[in-house]
Specification:
This protein is α+β, with helices and mostly antiparallel strands. The protein has nine helices and nine strands. Strands 1, 2, 3, 4, 5, 6, 7, 8 and 9 form a nine-stranded antiparallel beta sheet that branches. The longest helix has 20 residues. The chain is globular and about 65 Å long. It starts with a strand and ends in a 6-residue tail after the last helix.
């Protein structure tokens, strides 16, 4: 269900003290390590834009399917705890920094976390004799439904020129795909992993061993830009993001794409 979120760590109440620079540098160093999170953008020593992947927390790749709120809460808690430990302890991870307690208190009191985008993924398993490309007529129907619901949109697809095989469909609430507020992407997840592992077939084999249903997966990802009050660091640890967005995104996808009346 829940896939990735885009969060921004913002340093607030800045007055030019050295501690602000030190906390920002530590955060930047932490996020550059990469893992189940990626540093997307820095902004003049004031904010850091981060992509946080819930599936990658459990298995390094997004083939893992998140299905419970408990999994999401675990990711939130561990994510913040790892940052707090990185700020508090020295580079060895054992000894406390000389000013570790001061840095940690400042971080907790003066850094806010803003959720900017949420991606929720739903998975449809194809029938034994079905293929992703075999649903072309349905994709045309979905296009007509979405445009009825969103007259300003122009849904698009990505296909292979040689055989006209569809790989990805994009439905946005704007004509410019990059300027969307709400987006739904349907794609062949197996094909995506084939492309990702094109130089490492053994990696693809390993993924298939772990996720044998991957060749039959149709991925439906709903994304929204989010506008809500920023979180204090410790509050983000306990935020039930699963219940806040998954059902809402499911309803929105059903209404805009699989609308039974239309």
């Amino acid at each position: 269900m829940l896939d990735t979120i885009n969060v921004v760590f913002e340093l607030e109440n800045m007055v030019g003290d050295y501690i602000e620079v030190e906390v920002f540098d530590l955060l930047r160093k932490f996020f550059r390590r990469r893992g189940y999170y990626d540093l997307l953008k820095e902004n003049d020593g004031k904010s850091l834009s981060i992509r946080l992947s819930y599936p990658r927390f459990f298995d390094n790749i997004n083939a893992y399917l998140i299905t419970t709120k408990e999994e999401c809460l675990e990711v939130n808690r561990v994510f913040i705890e790892e940052i707090r430990r990185f700020i508090y302890f020295d580079e060895s991870g054992v000894g406390v920094r000389s000013n570790g307690e001061v840095l940690l208190k400042w971080f907790e009191a003066n850094v806010a976390i803003k959720i900017k985008r949420v991606d929720v993924a739903f998975t449809h398993i194809l029938g034994k004799d079905d293929s992703f490309n075999g649903y072309k007529n349905l994709y045309q129907l979905l296009n007509n439904i979405y445009m009825k619901r969103n007259p300003a949109s122009i849904p698009k697809n990505i296909s292979v020129i040689g055989n006209n095989e569809v790989e990805t469909l994009m439905f946005t609430d704007t004509q410019n795909v990059g300027a969307y507020n709400r987006k739904i992407v349907i794609y062949n997840q197996y094909r995506k992993f084939c492309d990702y592992c094109s130089k490492d077939p053994l990696q693809l084999h390993s993924i298939l061993q772990k996720y044998p249903d991957l060749p039959r997966r149709v991925r439906i990802e709903a994304s929204k830009r989010i506008r809500r009050k920023p979180f204090e660091v410790l509050d983000f640890m306990e935020f039930d993001i699963f219940n806040a967005y998954v059902q809402q995104f499911a309803d929105d996808t059903l209404n805009n794409l699989f609308n039974k009346e239309l």
